[in-house]
Amino acid sequence: MVDLRILPSLVSRITRRRFPGRRRSFRLRAASGPALLVCLALLASPNSFPQQAAHLELPDAPSPTAEADPTQTVVPPPTQPQQQQPVFKIGPFRDPKALDLSMPVVPLTVGDKLRLSFQEQATPFAVASMVFAAGWEQLVDSNPKYGTDSAAYAQRVGAAALRQTSQAVFSDGIFASAFHEDPRFYRLVQGTTGKRILYAATRTFRTRTDSGAPTTNYALLFGHATAQALTLTYYPDRSQNGRVAGTGFAWSLFGNMLGNQYHEFFPDILKAILQRPPVGPKPTSGLAESKQLPAR
Across all residues in the chain, what is the average pLDDT? Predict the structure, then answer.
């Protein structure tokens, strides 16, 4: 590598010989020559820079952005559709008349109430109540007085079906529409068993309007009274009197109280049956496991 210290004297000698009349001007240039040569030597030599210079990184140039086309429409990202909460007209518990108090409902029209009055008679509970009522009347030979033979039992089943259906149509269909009352049963669900039993029993006399306000259950009271008065047209002659109709009206209210217990508790029983955990294999006892161990 060339020794930079001899460069100023070398340049000075060359300028004196070739340009003797310009010594003063070249002295200044000779004085500034070493500094210029030092800078050139530093730029030419890679070992003259500090090692940290190799690690310096320049920032990346900004990437070009595409200009928005004013004629192009911006499509928003697709949004998740919100799941709508179901609204109920009839009960989802295999019991069209039973709903929970927390369920969102819509008011029933006149046609809905009439359909509900017939639909609830097609449930297993309604059929069982008809058969049970006819069996009890056959057992104690109460009104209607058809006798005690098998033909009398069939007549009693038919009379019970007609009586129960007319009660539902008058109460849940006709009078519920006339009084603007909701014929559905709203389960309490929460609370103690005694509180729920009392609540269900009182629903025979208390209900709610189509707007949800509490009110007296006029539809049921008038409907059952009308259905009992209608029995005087198809009961046998011995049972066609006011005393039989009055007694039947009282028994119909008691039967409605029992039916409300079914509406209140049957969904819980059904849920317990359907969600019962599967029965797995029985665990083997420790004694049986010890017998299976190989002998040492």
Answer: 79
Identify whether residues 168 and 270 lie together within a single domain: yes
pLDDT-derived band at 140 (thresholds 50, 70, 90) equals very high
Q: Which residue range forms the structural domain that includes residue 139?
A: 98-274
What is d(CA 21, CA 268) in angstroms, rounded to the nearest whole number?
124
pLDDT range class, residue 195, cuts 50, 70, 90: very high
Cβ-contact 254, 194 below 8 angstroms: no
Q: Do 130 and 249 belong to one domain?
A: yes
Residues 103 and 198 in one domain: yes
- The arithmetic mean of pLDDT across residues 210-223, rounded, is 96
In angstroms, the Cα distances linking 264 to 191, 225, 243 are 12, 24, 32
The alpha carbons of the chain give a radius of gyration, in whole angstroms, of 51
Residue 253 shares a structural domain with residue 125: yes
What lies within 8 Å, CB to CB, of 84 at 6+ separation is none
> Above 60 in pLDDT, residue 244?
yes
Alpha-carbon torsion (10, 15, 17, 20), positive or negative: negative
Q: Does some domain include residue 154?
A: yes
pTM, 2 dp: 0.65
Q: Are 112 and 89 in contact (CB under 8 A)?
A: yes
The 3-state secondary structure of 249-264 reads: HHHHHHHHHHHHHHHH
pLDDT score, position 236: 95
Question: Do 39 and 115 share a domain, yes or no?
Answer: no
Give me the number of domains the chain comprises. Answer: 2
